[in-house]
Amino acid sequence: MKKILKYILKTLGVLVGLIIIYLLAVLILPLISVNKTPEKPIDQVEVYIKTNGVHTDIVMPVVTDQIDWSTYIPFSDTKSKQQYKYLAVGWGDKGFYLDTPEWKDLKFSTAFKAAFWLGESAMHTTFYNEMKVDEDCKRVYMSKEEYAELINYIKQSFDLDQQNKIQLIKTDAVYGNNDAFYEAKGSYSLFFTCNTWASNALKAANKEAPLWTATQQGIFYHYK
């Protein structure tokens, strides 16, 4: 009995230790900046980071001389079918996106799967006609070369079908008339969240980002 109790206490101690280490990483690692370089005259592509308070999206012009996103992510996939000027893209856990419209709807099974790589992921795209810079939306200027890297990073996050086309998730769980969901690569976890994905998007484009972050605060700390 003593051996069993000792084993249980050791296991609990290890779990508590891991939780403390994780929380310290969440607090400290976002403060460490990477790619902290001043803007250059060639940085002319306007990209935005936008948060809803929990999740970070990367927002880009629908049309530039480098890409027309509407040929890749068609307007017709939205309820409105209308044309827009800006495209926001985010990556996340499919269960959170489709089965949890509000926090009160969150199920333990959804949270558990998301935390431990057990769920599937999805891309969420939202179209806008205008962007307003404020506390929840920051402008990031990029060169064409940097934007090309961002385009590549985002495209590689989509899970393509056998015809190399993105796969629309047909659902009534869209948030409005201007958004849609698609199949994505990878799995959400405590160590790779929707905000980690957005942070890595900035890193791919050689823009300032936290060393690692699980939260949107870790990104926006560097864009005050």
**Strand order, largest beta sheet:** 6-2-3-4-5-8-7
- The outline comes out as globular
Q: Indicate the percent of residues in helices.
A: 25-40%
> For the terminal residues, how far apart are their CA atoms?
56 Å
Which percent band covers the strand fraction? 15-25%
Low-confidence stretches: none
Contiguous helical run count: 6
What profile does the largest beta sheet have? 7 strands, antiparallel
Structural class: alpha+beta
Report on the architecture of this protein.
With 224 residues, the chain is α+β, with helices and mostly antiparallel strands. Helices cover 32% and strands 21% of the residues. The protein contains 6 helices and 9 strands. The strands form 2 sheets. It has a 7-stranded antiparallel sheet. It is globular, with a radius of gyration of 19 Å. It starts with a helix and ends with a helix. The model has no long low-confidence stretch (mean pLDDT 90).
Question: What is the element layout, followed by pairings?
Answer:
Elements: H1 2-28, E1 33-34, E2 45-51, E3 56-61, E4 86-93, H2 94-99, H3 108-115, E5 121-128, E6 137-142, H4 144-157, E7 168-169, E8 179-183, H5 194-204, E9 209-210, H6 216-220
Antiparallel strand pairs: 1-9, 2-3, 2-6, 3-4, 4-5, 5-8, 7-8
